[in-house]
Write a structure and sequence with these properties.
Metallo-B-lactamas, 27% strand, seven-stranded mixed β-sheet, alpha+beta, 265 residues, hydrolase, MBL_superfamily_lactonases, six-stranded mixed β-sheet
Length: 265
């Protein structure tokens, strides 16, 4: 069942738990090998051989009745994520529990095009949310299209032809709901800001990166840029209200401690 909603300014935000389980396939391995750098004190948080992930999406409901879905999760048993995901996604069931049908969603924001965030946008070869505009950064689309034949291009982007709005940088997707470019994890990663809340996508993958933003994830496309982006996203979040919603942490919302100056340097 979905978590209790919260109000972020004028927007109701409902966390949707698509799946939970251990990282699988080629991504399986000790946490200490998946995250590098940082102090010994902070790296102590990375002990253990199993990384249990929450896979979370968010539904935003504006006062005007707009329904904006942030990320689409893993998809079904035949999705591009099935080779490594612990279980199929259950996003549509989570939405149903909130009283929302896929056809009612008017906007989908994909923070990036990794399969655990984008594969659920397509079901059996057709758009899961057929009446929604799908907002993606142009740099992300270009990256996938330039990567040669790949599952996301063939099984996600192409079935969404005519439904994708490729934006460049910051854009307001609904009154009071903004996407902001946040590259590093992928070239066109973006976050979502509304009121005091920032939905961080994969800018934050593990709680250790809140303690030490310099700790890098080995599968970031551009690790150094990802660190700089993480610092900036956390700085903006602290300045704007200090609340984040994460895709993979155990709890959907985290209240940040410290001041914006904590991310300088």
């Amino acid at each position: 069942m979905p978590y209790q909603p919260m109000m972020a300014g004028e927007v109701e935000v409902i966390p949707l738990l698509d799946a939970v389980g251990p990282m699988g396939g080629e991504l399986r391995g000790p946490l200490g090998e998946k995250f590098v750098g940082g102090s010994a004190e902070h790296r102590a948080m990375l002990r253990g051989d199993t990384w249990t992930l929450h896979f979370r999406c968010y539904l935003l409901r504006t006062r005007a009745g707009r329904l904006i879905l942030v990320d689409c999760g893993l998809g079904g048993a035949d999705s591009p994520a099935s080779s490594w995901a612990p279980v199929p996604g259950r996003l549509v069931d989570e939405l149903a529990a909130t009283g929302v049908a896929p056809g009612e969603v008017d906007t989908v924001v994909l923070t990036h095009l990794h399969s655990d965030h984008a594969a659920g946008a397509v079901t059996e070869g057709v758009a899961t949310f057929p009446n929604a505009r799908h907002v993606v950064q142009r740099a992300e689309v270009d990256w996938i299209e330039g990567a040669g034949p790949n599952a996301i291009l063939e099984r996600v982007l192409r079935p969404l032809t005519g439904l994708v709005d490729a934006v460049e940088g910051d854009a307001e997707v609904a009154p009071g709901v903004w996407v902001r470019a946040a590259p590093g994890h992928t070239p066109g990663h973006q976050v979502v800001e509304t009121g005091p809340l920032t939905l961080t996508g994969d800018v934050i993958l593990h709680a250790v990166q809140l303690a030490d933003p310099a700790i890098r994830y080995v599968h970031d496309e551009d690790p150094e840029r990802a660190v700089a982006t993480r610092r900036e996203v956390l700085r903006r979040a602290r300045a704007g209200g200090g609340l984040i919603g994460s895709a993979h942490l155990s709890e959907p919302f985290t209240r940040l401690s410290g001041s914006p100056a904590a991310e300088e340097g």
